[in-house]
C-alpha cells in the first residue's frame, strides 16, 4: 500500500459560525428549543441575525472544526467542503489554510451564499444552532478529488452532510474510493436531528460495513439503537463497526474495538463557557491518536483534552496549544 500524504481527510459542511449571547426568554420569544439544531432558509437567517445580539464570526462546521483540531495536534490534515465565491467563503478558506489544513475544493460562484450557523449561547453554556446551509449543500461528487481521498489514511465524514442528495453522493463516492485504496472511513452521527432524519440510511452504511470508526454521543447512540439502555445500545452498535467511540459529556467517553473496551473521565476545566465544537474536537483528539497508531485509551485521553480546551472559550476551534496540552501522549 502506498504511504498516504494525509493522515486524515475531513469532509463536511463549510460553515461560518456567528455566535451571540442570549437568555432563555429570547429563545422562548423566538420559539427555539434550547440546545437544539434546526435548518433555516436564507430569509430566516437574515431575520434572526437582525434580532439577535452582537455576534462573533468564526469559521466552523463540524468536520472543519475537527480538521482544525487535528492540524493543531500536528496531524497532516485536509478538508473538503463547498464555499461560495463571496466574502464569507474567502474568510472560511483563509481560516482553514491558516491553521495548516489543506483546503481541497475551489470556491464556486453558482452555489448561492456561503453557509452560516447562527449560534445562541445561554448562560448555562448550552448552544442553540440555526443553520443556513447555502453553498455547503451544493458539494458534488465531481468536486471531490478522489485521488486525494485515496491518499489519506483516514477519511472522516460528518452526518450533517448526509441531508442533501448532492453531498450524499459525494460522500458515497469518497467512501468507495477510500476503501478501494485500503483506507479507513470514520463517520460521526453529528446530532439526534440527523439520526431521526436518516436513521435508515445510517444503518444501511453500518450494515454494509462502510464505517470503520463510528462517533456518537450518548443521545445519538440511544437514538440509533431505538432504546434507553446505554450498555445494550453500545453492544448493538459495537458489533457492527470496527471501532465505536461514544462521548458522555461530564461522564467522559468510552470506546470499543473488537474485544477491547476503554474509557476515560472528562478532563477538569476551570469554567464552562460554550459547548459548541466539543464533539468535533473530541473526534480530532481521538483520530490524532489513531493516526499515530496509539491505543484506545490514549486516543480517548487526547479526545478529552481537546474537548476540554474548546468548551472553555467561545468558538469551536482551539485557541490554546493542543500539542502542549497533550504533552507526551502523542509520542
Q: How would you summarize this macromolecular structure in one to three sentences?
A:
With 331 residues, this protein is an alpha/beta fold. It has helices spanning 24-29, 42-51, 62-72, 87-98, 146-150, 165-180, 192-207, 218-225, 230-238, 278-291, 296-310, 322-326; strands spanning 6-11, 15-21, 37-39, 56-60, 77-80, 102-103, 115-121, 127-132, 152-158, 184-188, 213-217, 243-247, 253-257, 260-264.
What characteristics describe this protein?
331 residues, alpha/beta, UDP-N-acetylmuramoyl-L-alanine:D-glutamate ligase, nine-stranded mixed β-sheet, five-stranded mixed β-sheet, 12 helices, 14 strands, globular
Q: Remind me, CATH topology?
A: UDP-N-acetylmuramoyl-L-alanine:D-glutamate ligase
Integer tally of domains: 1
Using the CA coordinates, give the radius of gyration. 18 Å
**What's the name of the CATH homologous superfamily?**
Ribokinase
Fraction of residues in β-strands: 15-25%
Describe the structure.
The protein is α/β, with parallel strands linked by helices. The protein has a single domain (about 5-15, about 60-110, about 135-330), classed as 3-Layer(aba) Sandwich (UDP-N-acetylmuramoyl-L-alanine:D-glutamate ligase). The protein is built from twelve helices and 14 strands. It has helices at about 25-30, 40-50, 60-70, 85-100, 145-150, 165-180, 190-205, 220-225, 230-240, 280-290, 295-310, 320-325, and strands spanning about 5-10, 15-20, 35-40, 55-60, 75-80, 100-105, 115-120, 125-130, 150-160, 185-190, 215, 245, 255, 260-265. Strands 6-5-1-9-10-11-12-13-14 form a nine-stranded mixed sheet, with helices on both faces. Helix 3 (about 60-70) packs across helix 10 and helix 8 (about 220-225) crosses helix 9 (about 230-240). The longest helix has 16 residues, at about 165-180.
Amino acid at each position: 500500500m502506498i504511504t498516504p500524504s494525509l493522515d486524515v481527510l475531513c469532509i463536511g459542511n463549510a460553515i461560518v459560525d456567528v455566535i451571540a449571547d442570549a437568555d432563555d426568554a429570547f429563545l422562548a420569544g423566538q420559539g427555539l428549543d434550547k440546545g437544539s439544531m434546526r435548518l433555516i432558509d436564507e430569509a430566516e437567517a437574515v431575520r434572526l441575525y437582525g434580532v439577535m445580539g452582537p455576534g462573533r464570526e468564526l469559521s466552523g462546521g463540524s468536520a472543519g472544526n475537527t480538521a482544525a483540531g487535528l492540524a493543531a495536534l500536528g496531524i497532516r490534515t485536509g478538508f473538503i467542503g463547498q464555499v461560495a465565491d463571496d466574502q464569507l467563503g474567502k474568510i472560511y478558506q483563509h481560516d482553514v489554510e491558516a491553521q495548516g489544513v489543506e483546503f481541497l475544493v475551489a470556491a464556486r460562484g453558482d452555489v448561492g451564499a456561503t453557509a452560516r450557523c447562527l449560534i445562541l449561547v445561554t448562560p448555562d453554556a448550552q448552544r442553540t444552532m440555526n443553520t443556513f446551509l447555502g453553498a455547503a449543500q451544493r458539494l458534488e461528487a465531481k468536486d471531490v478529488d478522489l485521488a486525494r481521498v485515496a491518499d489519506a489514511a483516514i477519511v472522516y465524514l460528518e452526518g450533517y452532510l448526509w441531508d442533501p442528495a448532492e453531498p450524499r453522493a459525494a460522500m458515497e463516492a469518497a467512501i468507495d474510493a477510500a476503501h478501494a485504496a485500503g483506507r479507513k472511513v470514520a463517520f460521526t452521527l453529528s446530532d439526534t436531528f440527523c439520526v431521526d432524519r436518516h436513521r435508515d440510511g445510517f444503518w444501511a452504511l453500518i450494515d454494509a460495513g462502510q464505517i470503520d470508526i463510528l462517533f456518537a454521543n450518548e443521545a445519538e447512540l440511544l437514538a440509533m439503537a431505538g432504546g434507553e439502555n446505554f450498555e445494550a445500545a453500545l453492544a448493538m452498535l459495537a458489533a457492527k463497526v470496527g471501532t465505536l467511540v461514544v462521548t458522555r459529556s461530564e461522564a467522559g467517553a468510552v470506546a470499543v474495538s473488537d474485544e477491547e473496551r476503554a474509557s476515560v473521565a472528562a478532563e477538569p476545566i476551570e469554567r464552562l463557557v460554550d459547548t459548541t465544537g466539543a464533539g468535533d474536537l473530541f473526534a480530532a483528539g481521538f483520530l490524532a491518536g489513531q493516526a499515530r497508531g496509539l491505543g484506545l485509551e490514549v486516543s480517548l485521553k487526547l479526545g478529552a483534552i481537546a474537548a476540554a480546551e474548546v468548551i472553555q472559550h467561545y468558538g469551536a476551534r482551539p485557541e490554546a496549544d493542543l500539542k502542549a496540552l497533550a504533552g507526551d501522549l502523542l509520542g
